[in-house]
Every structure is written in structure tokens, then in C-alpha cells.
Amino acid sequence: MTDTASRQAPPHYAAVKQLILDKIAAGEWQPHHRIPSENELVGQLGLSRMTINRALRELAADGVLLRIQGLGTFVAEGKNHTSVFEVRNIADEIRERGHAHAAQTVVKDELKATPELADELGIELGSPVFHSLVIHLENDIPVQLEDRHVNPALAPDYLKQDFAARTPNSYLSAIVPWTSAEHTVEAVLPAPWEAKLLSIGRGDPCLSIHRRTFSGDRVVTSVRLLLPGGRSRIRSRQTAGG
After folding, report:
1. 7, 24, 47, 206: which has the highest count of C-beta atoms within 10 A?
2. What is the pLDDT of residues 179-238, one digit of tens each?
3. Which domain holds residue 134?
4. What angle (nearest 5°) sits at the alpha carbon of residue 164, between those of residues 109 and 94?
5. Are residues 201 and 92 in the same domain?
């Protein structure tokens, strides 16, 4: 009888996951609540760090928990919906959810077009290219890393803009209204520098969206958006015949 019960008992990490889910369901741990650290859970439950880490990692991947390096692990409010096939301003999306948007500019510079960038933007090799790297935050939590290249001929004042006050998307849409866009979406692991900027682990899966927007037959911008997988989900809606 004891052997049978032992064989049917859930693995320890699953039991830890259920314990956390029960506390959340009971309202004991509300959204944004900082849960005990791995060390604290190891001490409280008498289980190995590997077991606790797996439970927390899987709950984070499911969007139940939010792990922020250097700050701790928190009960998530729920994954944010990303309208991947719409060229929307992320600040508008965040505000529509009733949350606060903020942006931090990491890089804003001018480059010379490499062969890859020349092909991407449809410009001559070695031509000037504007580049920006911006982190978007929702309620002070990084939710998107925006790595953008812009054709200077279509947006000559791009580098003069304050992206904390107005996002690159909002500015470009206003001065060069786009007529078409193409998207490539894939699941990736972040590069070490990307993980650091997004406050996630190097093994945390991410959603990578590569988008080019056009004005007529000219490419306005090529941008790669990197979103932590545990904080986002894709949503798309199309009308019949669209």
C-alpha cells in the first residue's frame, strides 16, 4: 500500500507548483506579491534548490509568476496581449490596459549600412542609417526591447527625438504614414546583453518579431522587437476576406 501510494505521488516540483497555485487561488498571494526566494523556499519546504528552481521556472513560463533578476519572483498579473500583425504603438496598448508606460533609450546613433542593412532598407551599401535601441516598460517592468533601423531619407530628424516622451513608432507613423508591413515571428533565446536589458535569465524563451514597414515601395524602418515569453502572448484578429 505504501509503495503504491509512493509511486502515485506527484514529483516534488509538481507539489511545489501546486502549493504556489493554491496560495494564489486562495488570494493569499495577490498579483505583484513578491513570493519567498529560492533559498527561503528551500528552507521552508526542505527540498533541493533544483526542485524549487524547476517549479518556479515552469510557473514563470506559464505566465503565473514573473521573475526579475536582482529583484525577485512575483505573482504575475497575466500575460500581456501583443497584436503582432498590427503596427501599433506599444505605449497605447499598455495605457489601454490601464497601466503606465515608460521608455528608456539605450542607444541612438548613426551607422553605415552593412550589406544586410542595405538590403533590409533598400538603400546603397555604406549609406547612413539611423539606429535606436529602446526598452519599453509596463509598470516599471521591461516588456519589450526594440532594436530599430531607419532610412534617414524618410525621417531626417529621427535621432533628435526624445523617445521617453514619444515612441519611435508614434513618431514615424506621424511623419511617414506606412502603407504596408511585413512580419517574421520566431521563438528564440535572448543574447546575454538582451537578457540583461530585459531583466530575464539567459535561458528564458522570448518572442522575436521582425517587422519592416513601407511607404509606397520604400522601406521606412526595419525593427526587431524582443518580448519575454513569460510576459506576453500573441493575439491577432482578421476580418473575413482580409
Report:
1. 206
2. 888 888 888 999 999 999 998 888 888 989 999 999 989 999 999 999 987 655 545 444
3. 80-234
4. 125
5. yes
